[in-house]
Design brief:
about 35% helix, 7-stranded mixed beta sheet
C-alpha cells in the first residue's frame, strides 16, 4: 500500500503568497518567510514511509520551478477554489491513503504525518484541526469512493471550514489529530 503526502504550495512571489501576512510585514518579507518555511517543512516531512508530492501553483511555472527540490514529484493544482484544488490533489495519486497539507504550518513534522496515516488505519478520513477553525491536514483512506460533494459549500478561510468539511462526510468515520496553528498574520509568527 502506497501512502502519499501532498504538500500544497505556491511559487513564493511577493503579493501572490501570504497576502494577509504581507499586508502587515510587507509582501517581500511574507514571500521570503513562505519560501524558507516551505523549505524547512519539506525537509521535516520527507520520509520513506510515504511518497511526498508537491501540488504546485501556478501550474506551468510550478511544474518547472527551481525553488522546490527537483527530486520531489509535482502535480498542478489546477483551477478553482481551495476545495477544487484539494479534491484534485486527493484524487491524483493512483491508490492508497492520501494526506494533504498546507506549507504554512511551522509545527508539522514526520511524527504528525505518521499519526495521521495511522489514524486512517481505522477511519475513512482524518483531519488536523487548526486553532482558527480550519484545518492543516485532511487525509482520506480511499478504500471507498471520494464523495462527489466533498468540500461543497465550505466557507474557506473562516472558523467554519472544518465543520463545513465534516458535514460533507456524514457517513464517514473521521479522526482528528493534533491541533496546530498556521501562519496568516504577524501575530501568528510569534
Amino acid at each position: 500500500m502506497i501512502r502519499t503526502l501532498v504538500v500544497m504550495l505556491k511559487e513564493p512571489h511577493p503579493g501572490r503568497v501570504k497576502t494577509r501576512l504581507g499586508r502587515q510585514i510587507g509582501m517581500t518579507d511574507a514571500a521570503w518567510w513562505f519560501r524558507h518555511q516551505t523549505t524547512r517543512l519539506l525537509r521535516r516531512v520527507e520520509d520513506p514511509r510515504w511518497q511526498t508530492v508537491l501540488a504546485v501553483s501556478p501550474d506551468a511555472e510550478g511544474l518547472v520551478s527551481r525553488v522546490w527540490p527537483a527530486h520531489l514529484p509535482r502535480i498542478a493544482q489546477g483551477r478553482g477554489d481551495l476545495g477544487d484544488r484539494m479534491l484534485r490533489a486527493l484524487r491524483t495519486p493512483p491508490h492508497g491513503p492520501v494526506c494533504v497539507i498546507g506549507a504554512d504550518i511551522p509545527d508539522i513534522d514526520r511524527a504528525r504525518i505518521a499519526e495521521a496515516f495511522a489514524a486512517l488505519g481505522s477511519h475513512d478520513a482524518v483531519f488536523g484541526p487548526a486553532a482558527d477553525g480550519g484545518y492543516w491536514l485532511i487525509g482520506l483512506k480511499r478504500s471507498r469512493a471520494i464523495p462527489p460533494g466533498l468540500f461543497r459549500g465550505v466557507r474557506w478561510s473562516t472558523r467554519h471550514a472544518l465543520a463545513d468539511t465534516l458535514a460533507t462526510l456524514p457517513d464517514h468515520r473521521t479522526a482528528r489529530v493534533a491541533r496546530l496553528r498556521d501562519v496568516d498574520t504577524a501575530d501568528d509568527l510569534k
